[in-house]
C-alpha cells in the first residue's frame, strides 16, 4: 500500500478501473474486426476496428503492469520480469498449438 500525495493510502486495486474499460472494448473490437473482414466490404472498416483494439491493449497492459508493481513493491522488477517471460514463452509457443 502506497501513500498518495494527499496522505491517503492507495491500494493496488485502485489501478484496475482502466482494465474494466479495456476488457469491455477488446471483444467489441475483435467482433468488429471479424465482421468487417469480408472481401466485399470496404477496407476502412477493418482499419477502424484497430482503434478500440489498440486502446483496449494500452488500457489492459498498462493497468496490469502498474497493478503488479504496486502489489510486489520490493520485488516489482522480478514480478514484471516473470510477466514478460511468461508472455514471451506463450507468444513463442502459441503457433505450435494453433491449427
Pick out its properties.
99 residues; mainly alpha; two-stranded antiparallel sheet; 3 helices
Could you please describe the fold and organization of this structure?
This protein is mainly α and 99 residues long. It has one domain. The protein is built from 3 helices and 2 strands. It has a two-stranded antiparallel ribbon with strand order 1-2. The longest helix is centred in the middle third of the chain and has 28 residues. The N and C termini lie far apart (44 Å). The model has no long low-confidence stretch (mean pLDDT 91).
Task: Give the number of DSSP strands.
Answer: 2
Overall structural class, as computed from helix and strand content, comes to mainly alpha
Count the domains.
Answer: 1
Low-confidence stretches: none
Helix content: 55-70%
Strand order of the largest sheet: 1-2
- Main beta sheet, described? 2 strands, antiparallel
Shape: flat
* Total of helices: 3
The average pLDDT is: 91
Report, as a whole number of angstroms, the end-to-end distance: 44 Å
SSE order, as H and E?
EEHHH
Radius of gyration, whole Å: 18 Å
Strand content: under 5%
Summary, kept brief:
The protein has 99 residues and is mostly helical.
Secondary structure layout plus pairing:
Elements: E1 2-3, E2 9-10, H1 17-35, H2 44-71, H3 76-97
Antiparallel strand pairs: 1-2
